[in-house]
Specification:
Pfam families: DUF8156. It comes from candidate division MSBL1 archaeon SCGC-AAA259D14. The chain has 88 residues and is mainly alpha-helical. It has one domain (8-87). It has helices at residues 8-18, 20-24, 28-43, 45-50, 56-87. The protein is elongated and about 65 Å long.
Length: 88
C-alpha cells in the first residue's frame, strides 16, 4: 500500500518550489542568503516532521530562527573571547 501523506521532507521541497520566483527576483548575494535559510530548514527535518501542521512555513521559520540564534550565540562567545584578550 502506498503512502497517502507526504513526508515533511517532501512538503519542504514543495514549499521551496513555491518560493522559486521570489528567490529568482533577488540580487545574487541575496539569493545566497536565501539558499542558506532554506538549507537551515533541512537541518531540522526530523523536528519539523514531528509537528503536524497544515502550514509548513511555521516549521521552516522556526528552523531558520534556531540556526540564526545559534550563530548569534557563537558570535557572542567569540566577541567575549576577543574582548578578554584585548583587556589582558
Amino acid at each position: 500500500m502506498g503512502r497517502t501523506v507526504p513526508t515533511y521532507r517532501e512538503v519542504l521541497e514543495e514549499e521551496r518550489k513555491k518560493w522559486r520566483e521570489f528567490k529568482n527576483s533577488l540580487k545574487e548575494e541575496e539569493r545566497e542568503v536565501f539558499e542558506k535559510l532554506m538549507e537551515d530548514c533541512e537541518l531540522h527535518v526530523s523536528a519539523g516532521s514531528q509537528v503536524k501542521s497544515p502550514n509548513p512555513f511555521r516549521e521552516m521559520a522556526m528552523s531558520m530562527l534556531l540556526e540564526q540564534q545559534k550563530e548569534i550565540r557563537s558570535m557572542k562567545k567569540k566577541l567575549d573571547r576577543l574582548e578578554k584578550q584585548l583587556e589582558e
